[in-house]
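Following up on my earlier thread - several people asked me to post the actual chain instead of describing it. Fair enough. Here it is, all 449 residues.
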Amino acid sequence: MRSALHHWLVALGLSMILLAEHALAGSLQVLDISQASAAEVRAQRQSQESVGWWLEMGKQLVLYGDPVESDLPLLASYDGIDPNELLLRARGCSDHAIEAGELLARGGRWELRRVPLGMQRALNLTRFHAWRKLTPNARIARQYRLDAPAQRGAADPALQAVVDRIDAARWFADLEALAAWDRSSYGTSELSAARDWIAAQFDGLGLDDQLQPFNMNAPGGGAITRFNVSGAWTGSSDPQRWVIVGAHYDSRNASGSSTVNTPGAEDNASGCAGVVELARALLPSQPAASILFICYAGEEQGLIGSSAHVQSLIGAGQLSSVEAVVIMDMIGYSADANLEALYESSGSYTDYLQRFGAAAAIYVPELAVITSTNPFGSDHVPYLQAGVQTVLAIESDWDIYPHYHRSSDLPANMGPNALAMGGAILRTNAAVIAEIAGVDAALFADGFE
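Reply from S.P.:
Thanks for posting it. Predicted structure:
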């Protein structure tokens, strides 16, 4: 940790130098670019660069320096901003980053906050990855529509067949089944019951199901053994090439260590049920590549299960065979009928991110896609750190979901848009996975030859 903290402090110092060079007496403005064209956003950024700097944060554009005239809606304006007081805070589990300072803007899974220098010194730097000094003129998150080609491609019949097999009602029924168990990784019998239920679903689909043990710390000290559960499809013609489809099946409530009242419907029965539903949709088309469908435990304690899986791939010399990974975490809540999903990876895999936006445009046009190359805090991170092309799919309203990490995270509380939201993300993911894995036209549309 000392080495990581040292690197963070060096990066922090470099960013402060950059900000000092760009610092001008002026204000910070937050513009609404949710309806802006690509040309409007580009022109606004270029105008601002002459007097200050900008941050693109999904549907918000942050401008610092002398105000530049704009026809775009103004969401907020702040005067007397010291740029050295600006930090980016990762939004997610409260264990990752304490809340500090004043919220100014948000986009992707990050917040722009004004944090006085004295308060910055009080932050827990051992959680250095949750706070970042911003770099001027950067994209934190980006609306896919701003980069979408003028003409959409035509639907591929083979991919359309997979997409059409997604059954949102069936997915939600599986979500309800999982949410009936308390799935804290510190628990025992109910966690095991959920694990075995997942294994039974994989087995029923003809997958090679396995339990993969790993150790983690117990709350009171000592080690406990928990399990990832997987189901493997052997590729029909290209079995040495692998795709991984994953989500965590463990859950928590506000206490973090409680083993009761942890239904975790949205977080993350939704993603785990999505893994099962994607298997149902993909297998009838007999994918050419092998696919590992996997659900992890230990995510809420620090991505322990997914990290263990990555280490097992490295130990077995199999990591280089993994072509792509799709992780799902919280895919079913939408505060309104406007469906929006965030797809997140690292800057090395922007082309991969764009594939999900393109798939949604063709197969799920009701879904608005935002992309981010600032990954944080879910099971995609261990794969990215190992150099594997990986994406996280998450609905965009998770941070305003009133039952997040609470005992009230129940299926009934996910609201009236759950089937539409979950179905939209699953159809998008199905199209991309089917394309990467390689499928022919539906040979067994009803599951039988």
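Residues 340 and 368 are 5 Å apart (CA to CA). That should answer part of your original question.
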